[in-house]
Write a structure and sequence with these properties.
The complex is a heterodimer of chains A (115) and B (616).
Chain A: H1 2-22, H2 26-48, H3 71-102
Helix pairs in contact in A: 1-2, 2-3
Chain B: H1 3-27, H2 33-58, E1 63-66, E2 81-84, H3 86-105, H4 116-133, H5 137-155, H6 162-193, H7 198-206, H8 212-229, H9 237-244, H10 247-273, H11 279-302, H12 307-326, H13 331-362, H14 378-392, H15 398-412, H16 418-442, H17 477-495, H18 499-510, H19 513-522, H20 539-561, H21 567-586, H22 591-611
Antiparallel strand pairs in B: 1-2
Helix pairs in contact in B: 1-2, 1-4, 2-3, 2-4, 3-4, 3-10, 3-13, 3-17, 3-18, 4-5, 4-10, 5-6, 5-10, 6-8, 6-9, 6-22, 7-10, 7-19, 8-10, 8-22, 9-12, 10-12, 10-13, 11-12, 11-16, 11-22, 12-13, 12-16, 13-14, 13-15, 13-17, 13-18, 14-16, 14-17, 15-17, 15-20, 16-20
The chains are: A mainly alpha (115), B mainly alpha (616).
């Protein structure tokens, strides 16, 4: 199960990067970037996963001596999601501006910057 | 003042700009423009003062802040530290100083976008300060992204300009992709060692032999820093972003953000991987990468007619030189690069601001079309030529001192070709800048419409660059003041007595992972060992500096005169020109190509570090 999750993480990261490389549409490229980032979510969560362990919230039901999953990677994933939302929003807004200025979002047809 | 006070001040260098930025966004539309300007400059000067205090304290030992007071017990930590040694505190001061100059220059800039420009600049400042002071790998990633997001937005600030938004988008996608790969690397490292702090990770790795996983983690983590540092083949986004970003933003991009990438890569290497990965593997990967970057940057720089793009490629060339120097993995090399980078920041920033002055006056930045436009600007032309000569390595500018110290470190480390590369690259980049100066300020060479060289259509020229200000009939004093301050800074690094010694001390601390771990984990402050080498002017360094400057002037003069070469000579040059055109064609402005190069570069780096056998 764990190995499978690592495999999924690596696959998402690479397929996202491949999506950016092969993209013919800037919106598609930005979404591919999010796909690549989803790979890091899966990776981080599966690093902290433990079989038959509870959520790391200690209280009346869960005493401090019981096994829990690692809260550090969960905090990292949350931070990562915030970063992702910001980057994706900013890049999509920029893609909209590119369309307004150049009338296309196909990177093959953008020619403002060369050499 | 005790070092405890300095430790309390360190988080303020990050928090104050963030708070002021929030205030500006909230109240920006109601505040008059000069209040925003004043608030921006005052905030960055405050950060300057904070960084200066931390820097003076860090001379006696590293300053460590445990946020939330989660201190380590018996060398085991769960907290997140900020750590300042002389090098990081000095870099923090450089960042805040450049930001102050940039905001001073942009006094009355951007009247229409009230508050946002200033707020973004301050967030950018906070991100860079956090990145340089952080002692935790994941925090470095978060601050890397914070400065990245502010930088993408600042690049695309001229939102009506098609090149600006495209440049911002390329910058954003390529940098973020690199950052996600490195986050995956951080995750892998955490999975193996259960730590995120630089010092505890380093300690765990001393107990393990380097295995494939460690090498993969190193390569993937370092990738995002190398993307930021624009090392070939990760450099494609840089000219696109620098060419379109406003001039005061370029000051921060070229002056310090790009160098922060190298800082991050080598900080992580020294503190985390230094004991586990053989140093020869790192040298074998980074020396060729540095030389390749320097050569590609210098050639591309000389081929540009768009002034900002020319300066951007010159930054790539210099980053290549810095990489080569740092890759010696010696304190001397590190000290030389730190000197070089500090002086380069002043000189290159001054050049970007002078190009900004040209843009404000003439409305475009194309070298050929500007022919003779600056004949009446005596004072500005002197500033421009001084900065150009300093870029080529004219003593007594700090660039010449840094260049000479780094050259000697390379020679001593067994790379006698080092000085030749440094002189050639300095001459080419300085020559390109001086050539533009001859054309613009002296009106040298044939005018573009009188049979002079004509720009090829398939490349970016500076003709359509959008203005950043209203048309200025005379340049405001604040602009000159910023340029003069920056040039004076570049000169001071070379002239001030004791500057060399201070940089030696900083480099000694930077390359000492054991002292770093002791200070962070056990709170002991072992005195940084006294450097066994002193960075000062040497006869050889002065001579080589003069040689590279003279070569730059000659190259510039030859390029401007450009008599139509006889056909035989042109035929001999043709293979070279054709390969240069091929390299140019690779810079396609296509984001997919850039991402592909990123993947290729990462694979090549892994091959160089992990697979190739090392002699000796």
């Amino acid at each position: 199960m764990n190995l499978y999750a690592y495999g999924v993480a690596g696959w998402l990261l690479l397929v996202g990067a491949f999506g950016v490389v092969r993209s013919a549409n800037l919106v598609h490229a930005v979404v591919s970037l999010s796909v690549a980032q989803s790979g890091t979510y899966v990776l981080l969560l599966c690093v902290g996963y433990q079989r038959a362990a509870g959520a790391p919230v200690f209280g009346s039901t869960l005493r401090p001596s019981t096994r829990v999953t690692d809260p550090v990677v969960q905090a990292m994933t949350l931070t990562d999601i915030v970063v992702s939302a910001t980057v994706t929003a900013l890049l999509l807004a920029t893609a909209v501006q590119v369309h307004k200025q150049q009338g296309t979002v196909d990177p093959n047809r953008l020619s403002a910057l060369k050499g | 003042m005790t070092s405890g006070t300095a430790a309390h001040l360190m988080p303020l260098a990050i928090a104050v700009p963030v708070l002021v930025a929030c205030l500006m966004v909230a109240a920006g539309s109601r505040l008059p423009h000069h209040v925003l300007d004043l608030l921006g400059v005052a905030t960055s000067l405050t950060v300057c003062a904070l960084a200066a205090v931390v820097l003076t304290r860090s001379a006696d030992g590293r300053v460590v802040t445990w946020n939330g007071d989660w201190r380590p017990k018996r060398g085991v930590s769960v907290g997140i530290p900020l750590v300042a040694d002389s090098l990081s505190a000095g870099t923090a001061l450089l960042i805040a100083g450049l930001m102050s100059c940039a905001l001073l220059y942009s006094w009355r800039y951007y009247s229409p976008v009230r508050g946002y420009y200033h707020a973004l600049m301050l967030l950018f400042l906070a991100g860079m300060e956090g990145f340089v002071l952080s002692g935790d790998l994941f925090d470095m990633f978060v601050f890397f992204e914070l400065m990245g997001i502010a930088a993408y937005a600042l690049t695309g600030l001229k939102i009506e300009d098609p090149t600006a938004v495209q440049g911002g988008l390329n910058f954003g996608i390529v940098n973020s992709l690199g950052a996600y790969f490195s986050l995956a690397g951080i995750g892998v490292l955490y999975a193996r060692h259960g730590q995120l702090g630089l010092a505890p990770l380093g300690q765990r790795l001393t107990e393990h032999r380097a295995d494939a996983l460690t090498v993969v983690a190193l390569v993937v983590i370092v990738t995002c820093f190398l993307v930021k540092a624009a090392v070939v083949p990760f450099h494609f986004w840089l000219p696109d972003a620098h060419a379109v970003a406003p001039a005061p933003v370029c000051v921060l991009f070229s002056g310090v953000m790009v160098e922060l990438g190298l800082y991050g890569a080598f900080r992580v290497f020294w503190t985390v991987f230094g004991s586990a990965v053989p140093h020869d593997d790192i040298r074998g990967a980074f020396l060729p990468a540095g030389v390749l970057t320097a050569v590609v940057g210098a050639l591309m720089c000389f081929a540009q007619s768009h002034l900002k793009r020319m300066l951007a490629y010159s930054t790539i060339a210099h980053v290549g030189l810095f990489t080569t120097g740092l890759a010696t993995l010696t304190p001397e090399g590190t000290a030389g690069v730190a000197l070089y980078a500090a002086a380069h920041a002043g000189v290159k920033s001054a050049l970007f601001l002078l190009v900004g002055v040209i843009l404000a006056r003439h409305g475009h930045v194309d070298e050929l079309k500007l022919h003779g436009c600056g004949r009446d600007a005596r004072f500005v032309s002197w500033l421009y030529f001084a900065a150009g000569a300093a870029l080529a390595g004219l003593p007594p500018f700090g660039t010449a001192l840094g260049k000479s110290v780094t050259e000697e470190a390379l020679t001593r480390a067994g790379h006698p070709w080092g000085p030749a590369v440094f002189v050639a690259v300095s001459a080419l980049t300085g020559g390109a800048v001086l050539r533009a100066g001859f054309r613009i300020y002296l009106g040298a060479g044939p005018a573009p419409d009188a049979g002079g060289p004509v720009a090829i259509a398939a490349q970016t020229t500076g003709i359509e660059e959008h203005r950043e200000t209203e048309q200025l009939s005379r340049t405001p004093r604040t602009m000159y003041a910023a340029v003069l301050l920056l040039l004076a800074g570049g000169l001071a690094v070379g002239v001030l007595p004791g500057a060399g010694r201070a940089f030696d001390h900083a480099a000694e601390g930077f390359t000492d992972p054991r002292g770093y771990a002791a200070a962070v984990l056990f709170g002991t402050a072992p005195a940084v060992g006294s450097p066994h080498h002193e960075s000062t002017w040497t006869a050889q360094g002065v001579v080589l500096g003069c040689v590279s400057t003279a070569a730059a002037v000659l190259l510039a003069a030859a390029a401007v005169r450009a008599p139509r070469a006889p056909d035989a000579r042109r035929a001999r040059l043709r293979p070279f020109l054709r390969s240069l055109a091929a390299v140019r064609a690779l810079h396609s402005g296509h984001v997919g190509d850039y991402a592909a190069w990123l993947l290729f570069g990462m694979t090549a780096l892994a091959a160089l570090v992990g697979v190739l056998p090392v002699d000796g």
